[in-house]
Amino acid sequence: MWLAGLEWPGERGLSGHSDGDAVAHAICDALLAAAGLGDIGGMFGTADPRFSGAHGEVFLAETVRRLAAAGWRVGNVSVQVVGNRPKLAPRRAEAEALLTGIVGAPVSVAATTTDGLGFTGRGEGVTAIATALIVPASGRA
Ligand SMILES: Nc1ccn([C@@H]2O[C@H](COP(=O)(O)O)[C@@H](O)[C@H]2O)c(=O)n1
Ligand SMILES: C[C@@]1(CO)OP(=O)(O)OP(=O)(O)OC[C@H]1O
């Protein structure tokens, strides 16, 4: 499994055209939507073989670049993982440091189980929900 930019040995990977990193993808969606630039599915389509198996940092770095080209910079990002596994807390600092480095602004990572409820509670998948603050880059009208 790849999640939050990290590999999780022994965890069943999430399905996807890319590496399935739902945390990285949620951050991209939050940033792109905040800037009015659409979403990750519209920007990096599954029809493009360059993104087959691609890691989250590929999408994050290009998303930040697209925001900058549109006159935005990232203030900070918060992302919440909903699911039983993997247990994020032991690697929270590692994930935050990695994502912060890629995004170029503070990224915080929270996690919660659903106390056994729903598809995440049954261990069938993971949900990631991100919120992003973006600010006009200097010189932007
Ligand atoms: N995948 C997860 C889910 C939760 N945690 C941490 O466990 C603590 C308790 O979670 P609740 O379900 O009671 O919200 C919490 O501090 C989470 O950070 C985790 O590490 N990984
Ligand atoms: C990342 C992309 C492209 O490889 O594919 P997936 O890995 O399937 O991820 P998802 O968030 O479902 O959709 C966005 C796609 O553009």
UniProtKB/TrEMBL annotation:
UniProt cross-references to InterPro entries, sorted A to Z: MECDP_synthase, MECDP_synthase_CS, MECDP_synthase_sf
Cofactors required: a divalent metal cation
Chain sites annotated for binding 4-CDP-2-C-methyl-D-erythritol 2-phosphate: 17-18, 39-41, 112-115, 119, 122
Listed SUPFAM superfamilies: IpsF-like (SSF69765)
Pathway: Isoprenoid biosynthesis; isopentenyl diphosphate biosynthesis via DXP pathway; isopentenyl diphosphate from 1-deoxy-D-xylulose 5-phosphate: step 4/6
EC number, UniProt record: 4.6.1.12
UniProt record, GO biological process: isopentenyl diphosphate biosynthetic process, methylerythritol 4-phosphate pathway; terpenoid biosynthetic process
Annotated TM spans: none
Cofactor note: Binds 1 divalent metal cation per subunit.
Domain of life: Bacteria
Residues bound to a divalent metal cation: 25
Function: Involved in the biosynthesis of isopentenyl diphosphate (IPP) and dimethylallyl diphosphate (DMAPP), two major building blocks of isoprenoid compounds. Catalyzes the conversion of 4-diphosphocytidyl-2-C-methyl-D-erythritol 2-phosphate (CDP-ME2P) to 2-C-methyl-D-erythritol 2,4-cyclodiphosphate (ME-CPP) with a corresponding release of cytidine 5-monophosphate (CMP).
Known partners and oligomeric status: Homotrimer.
Name this polypeptide is given: 2-C-methyl-D-erythritol 2,4-cyclodiphosphate synthase
Species per Swiss-Prot/TrEMBL record: Agromyces binzhouensis
Gene that encodes the chain: ispF
